[in-house]
Amino acid sequence: xxxxxxxIATRDGMGHLSARHVAEEADVGASTVSxxxxxxxxxxxKLIEAAFGPLIHAFELADNxxxxxxxxxxxxxxxxxxxxxxxxTQVAAYIGLRDGEQRAxxxxxxxxxxxxxxxxxxxxxxxxxxxxxxDAGAVADRIMSWYFAAALQLARNPNVTPDQLQKxxxxx
Length: 172
Prior knowledge:
The protein is an all-alpha fold. It has one domain (38-170). The protein is 72% helix and 0% strand. The protein is built from 9 helices and no strands. α4 (40-60) crosses α5 and α4 crosses α6. It is globular and about 50 Å long. The relative contact order is 0.13.
């Protein structure tokens, strides 16, 4: 059912998520969707997890990829899963509204951002051009901004090469 949620969010946008739409996409009843997610807010919270969880997991795997830069680690999940950049972009755009229902969702993302930031800040990042930052939080903020910017670029043009992506997001 989460696949149906992701499909709707990436194809139609977060504003089109409803129990009825998810039920139609997943070929189940709307009450099944409501029972599974205990409401639309929790369903959208699952999308935050789906959109930003890969970034956290990428840094958990960084120890196994000591030759990669922080930028390569941060953008690898976006290049590995074709729909992820669109999902990240859709979630960010929906949250950016910060009005009504989106406001509560934005606050949830803010909490998730802080958790991800603290988690990423706890990693020693090899081959990082960010070593000159004394504040691990500033490093994590930079990495997360790369993730958002790279998602936007890859959502627009999935064929951009890793080198092109780095130049666009980080500059020459």
